[in-house]
From TrEMBL:
InterPro entries cross-referenced by the UniProt entry: Amidohydro_3, Metal-dep_hydrolase_composite, Metal_Hydrolase, Metallo-hydrolase_Enzymes
Molecular-function annotations in GO: hydrolase activity, acting on carbon-nitrogen (but not peptide) bonds, in cyclic amidines
Domain of life per record: Bacteria
The species this protein was found in: Siphonobacter aquaeclarae
Lineage: Bacteria, Pseudomonadati, Bacteroidota, Cytophagia, Cytophagales
Ranges for domain Amidohydrolase: 236-432
Annotated protein name in UniProt: Cytosine/adenosine deaminase
Length: 433
């Protein structure tokens, strides 16, 4: 076997070249006193309408001036001027992966598929308890390779859950903090302290308190409170109080359905209503129970989520369950997306592309028109779209942060429909590749 003829260090190095070498990462250096210019950049300028129907998107080439991490000016295009040549690539807001686990992956190491023996969450907890010590040995390296994959797909930001449980203690967090420090010039993240093995099913509450005090932690997480810890109220009360004590947000993994699933949603909404400081800072990840509700109950819950400022992070699942994303968005619920697992012991299908998630959503919900495809992009960009619903350009504008994905497409609708390749990415005005 190829791997057996190499040392582990050499194998990892060569694997990383195979996995990430094609992205050609480099950081463009420039004087702090001089603006950086992008020329021949394609920007959306409006919709083309025929007989009341939006049939296309107008674009024009421009030059963007960047300084101190921001877009300082949008200038008429100067093809012969100085600056990085975008060669007609479409500028989109850089993507944001809002649900991923950077701390535990096989990516950058040897391939390994998911075990058929692990059928339930408790099976997975037991598996992690056995295998996390090995995974942690090079988790900083693998997290960096995973970040590079996300960058190659146009993302410069992620919300990453990080294991906080007795098996790894705070080591998963320590290692991920180091990876993010190494990538701080080209990538940003917010971290969720995640009791993957349950708050009380394993004795994780004390460790969660330690993690919550860390500056790097922005959110307090949770996992299926009734199914894992035997109570809806006790784990959520702990999470809410810990978030309030440390000024953090909340992001709860909720896979369970049925009566306990909807009780969890309604109880969390009630706790946010009682504590307005959590409004706009509280999220339910997955929340599969919403995909199983009858329409009247779904409409009621969607209204309550929107009123309480509780968002939903969906990986846009398909097959037997289709999430009611259109209904949530119609009521004003924030809905973002993420890859979740990328080549790990939970799942092997994550591509690193949230643009692919937009495409999947468009297919699932029949978003095939120019307008609907263009609107689908917002789940990957944190809600930022180049054009508003009336076709007025709202991005980019002077003062915006210079986080930009340059893609091989003529407009947002094409980018979503074709999952167009990312040609270059800028983070805070720095050209990554």
């Amino acid at each position: 076997m190829f791997a057996e003829s190499l040392s582990r260090k050499d194998f990892i190095r060569q694997s990383s070249i195979l996995l990430a070498g094609t992205t050609g990462f480099r950081l463009e250096e420039k004087s702090a006193d001089m603006p950086f210019r992008l020329k021949n950049v394609r920007l959306e300028t409006g919709f083309v309408t025929e007989d009341g129907d939006i049939t296309a998107t107008r674009t024009e080439l421009a030059t963007l001036e960047l300084r101190d991490g921001k877009i300082t000016a949008i200038l008429p295009n100067d093809p012969s001027g100085k600056g990085h040549d975008a060669k007609g690539a479409l500028a989109l807001p850089a993507f944001r992966d809002m649900h991923i686990h950077l701390d535990k992956t096989y990516y950058g190491d040897q391939w390994k598929a998911r075990s058929a023996k692990n059928r339930s969450l408790r099976d997975m907890i037991a598996f992690e308890q056995r295998n996390l010590p090995e995974l942690l040995k090079n988790s900083t390296f693998k997290a960096e390779k995973l970040i590079e994959l996300l960058q190659s797909k146009g993302s410069t930001f992620a919300r990453s859950h990080v294991n906080i449980e007795p098996t790894s203690g705070l080591r998963s967090l320590d290692h991920l903090e180091k990876a993010l420090e190494n990538k701080k010039d080209t990538f940003s993240a917010e971290l969720v302290a995640f009791p993957q093995h349950g708050l009380y099913y394993t004795d994780s509450a004390g460790l969660m308190k330690e993690a919550a005090a860390r500056k790097s932690i922005g959110f307090i997480g949770g996992l299926d409170p009734f199914a894992i810890d035997g109570s809806v109220e006790k784990p959520l009360d702990f999470v809410v109080q810990l978030a309030l004590d440390h000024g953090k947000g909340i992001d709860i993994h909720l896979h369970e359905g049925g009566e306990s699933g909807i009780r969890t949603v309604e109880y969390l909404i009630r706790k946010v209503e009682e504590n307005p400081a959590l409004k706009g800072k509280t999220y339910l990840s997955h929340c599969f129970v919403l995909g199983r509700l009858e329409k009247p109950k779904l409409e009621e819950i969607a209204q309550k989520l929107a009123a309480a400022g509780v968002g939903v992070i969906s990986t846009i699942p398909f097959g037997g369950l289709i999430m009611p994303v259109p209904a949530l968005q119609r009521h004003g619920v924030e809905v973002w997306t993420g890859n979740d697992s990328i080549v790990d012991h939970w799942n092997t299908f994550g591509s690193g592309s949230v643009l692919q998630k937009c495409n999947l959503m468009a297919q699932l919900y029949g978003y095939s028109t120019e307008f609907d495809l263009s609107r689908s992009l917002k789940i990957a960009t944190g809600g930022i779209l180049p054009l508003d619903d009336k076709g007025n350009r709202q991005w980019p504008k002077a003062g915006d942060r210079a986080d930009i994905a340059l893609v091989n497409a003529t407009c947002s609708a094409e980018a979503v429909s074709r999952i167009s390749p990312v040609k270059s990415v800028l983070h805070k005005g720095k050209l990554i590749f």
